[in-house]
Write a structure and sequence with these properties.
Blueprint (H helix, E strand, L loop, with lengths): L1 H15 L4 H8 L3 H13 L8 H14 L2 E6 L3 E8 L4 E7 L18 E3 L5 E3 L6 H14 L9 E8 L7 H7 L2 H4 L5 E12 L3 E3 L2 E4 L1 E10 L3 E2 L9 H19 L6 E10 L5 E2 L2 E10 L2 H21 L9 E4 L8 E3 L1 H15 L4 E3 L21 E9 L1 H8 L17 H19 L3
Parallel strand pairs: 3-6, 3-7, 7-18, 8-17
Antiparallel strand pairs: 1-2, 2-6, 4-5, 8-18, 9-16, 10-14, 10-15, 11-13, 12-14
């Protein structure tokens, strides 16, 4: 009897210990070639946002093979895979599916040669230039290992493959389609994201705000057109648009507190048809970035005020003031990583990978709709972490100033597949064992 109790106590102690790096290496080794082949297949066959038919089918196949209950077509081409393993908490792991309208120029042997027409009917190349192929491969690796480690964890694992992250609409589509009603609601949510400036084998983290609110704004500047030689008889919307563009630059520099990050960029301006014709209107497209909701509202209010103010100063009547439209379907809320969850996993990963391989990163003004998975009341702790992708040789060359590192979304960006995927798998498996430990 005493021997049996000692055995159970010994087993319980072993289960409570974090998994070691050496053990993960041993577990991952049989899957290395498979995951590398999966990555190369996904990289060579990217699909644009909301068109991820074949990618979605492949992810569903991977999760079924791993032993999950799989549901497809959630919020479009979204996939939800559930693995139940007794009582306990629920953890959501997320990967994204879509590629970008970018023509690849990396020269890799598995480079994408895919071409298609975008939503505007324009011919374009398609590329996984943001590492979603790495995300899918790492999440698949974790999904293949965790059923084999059932004795080390208890609870429910929900793995989702989300469409249309690059368009900012996929997470919302899955939530509207009942993600948290039809499937177990998570207690935590994690997602890996590639880092184009971090060495492979390392993990990057940021507690609190890590990614920004993203708003898209259409601004139509109206005037009274006429002959370019008789400008005095017109209300020139081109000049007015130029004044508004310059005025908008004072929002961040003169209205937002210096300690609050914000960006207002006019990315597109279109107006007129000929040299000597003053048009009736000019169309502007803006991207607006912020972290807090208060800053976001202040910027949007200021854009409207400045645009209307310049128009009134030009003598335009109220019925010809600029028309402003904030594109709600394109809005991506800021990613606010839960500090307690970050602290818990950073300590775990430092013990697993070494202190020097888990590094704090600066917050960014890019956007990620993974944030939405934490905003459904009651709020869910989320953590979007970074996975380094650059091999040591390229990193050293960049530090010497010999070859700058391409950014994400660049046609020249490519990750070092094997060490990047392996690190992602280790991070996801160890985090799952920690958050769902017995």
């Amino acid at each position: 009897m005493r021997r049996g109790i000692l055995f159970l106590l010994s087993a319980a102690w072993a289960w409570s210990q974090p998994i070691s790096n050496a053990e993960l290496d041993r577990l991952i080794e049989p899957d290395v070639a498979y995951l590398d082949a999966l990555y190369q297949h996904l990289h060579a066959h990217p699909e644009l946002s909301f068109r991820e038919k074949e990618t979605s089918a492949r992810m569903a196949q991977e999760f079924r093979t791993a032993g999950f209950e799989v549901t497809t077509h959630v919020g479009g081409y979204g996939v939800v895979a559930v693995l139940r393993n007794g009582p306990g908490k629920t953890l959501l792991l997320r990967t994204d599916l879509d590629g970008l309208p970018v023509e690849e120029k990396t020269g890799r042997p598995y480079a994408s040669k895919v071409r298609t027409q975008n939503d505007e009917g324009i011919d374009t190349g398609v590329m996984h230039a943001c590492g979603h192929d790495i995300h899918m491969s790492a999440v698949t690796g974790a999904a293949r290992l965790l059923p084999k480690l059932r004795d080390r964890w208890s609870g429910t694992l929900v793995v989702i493959a989300q469409p249309a992250e690059e368009r900012g609409g996929g997470a919302l589509a899955m939530l509207k389609d009942g993600l948290y009603r039809r499937f177990p609601r998570p207690d935590f949510a994690l997602a890996p994201h590639t880092d184009a400036a971090l060495e492979a084998g390392r993990i990057g983290f940021r507690a609190g705000y890590a990614m920004a609110n993203v708003d898209s704004v259409d601004l139509t500047v109206r005037g009274l057109g006429g002959h370019g030689a008789y400008a005095h008889a017109t209300k020139d919307p081109v000049v007015l648009a130029a004044q508004i563009i310059l005025g908008l630059q004072t929002i961040v520099s003169r209205e937002i507190r210096a300690v609050d990050s914000a960006v207002v960029t006019v990315g597109s301006i279109h107006g007129g048809t000929k040299h000597n014709i003053i048009p009736d209107e000019v169309k502007l497209q803006l991207t607006v970035r912020s972290y807090s909701e208060a800053t976001r509202e202040q910027i949007l209010t200021s854009i409207r005020r400045i645009a209307n103010g310049y128009a009134k100063a030009a003598g335009l009547p109220d019925d010809r003031l600029p028309v402003m439209r904030v594109l709600s379907d394109d809005f991506t809320p800021a990613t606010d990583n839960d500090p307690a969850l970050v602290q818990r996993l950073v300590g775990l990963w430092r013990g697993l990978l070494g202190e020097e391989n888990v590094v704090e990163r600066e917050p960014e003004m890019g956007g990620e709709d993974f944030s939405r998975f934490g905003l459904e009341d009651p709020r869910i702790p989320v953590f979007l972490f970074r996975v380094g992708t650059i091999d040591a040789e390229r990193m050293a060359a960049a530090k010497r100033g010999q070859a700058p590192l391409p950014s994400l979304h660049s046609p020249l960006y490519w990750p070092a597949p094997h060490p990047t995927i392996e690190t992602g798998v280790k991070a996801l498996v160890s985090a799952t064992l920690e958050l769902l430990k017995k």
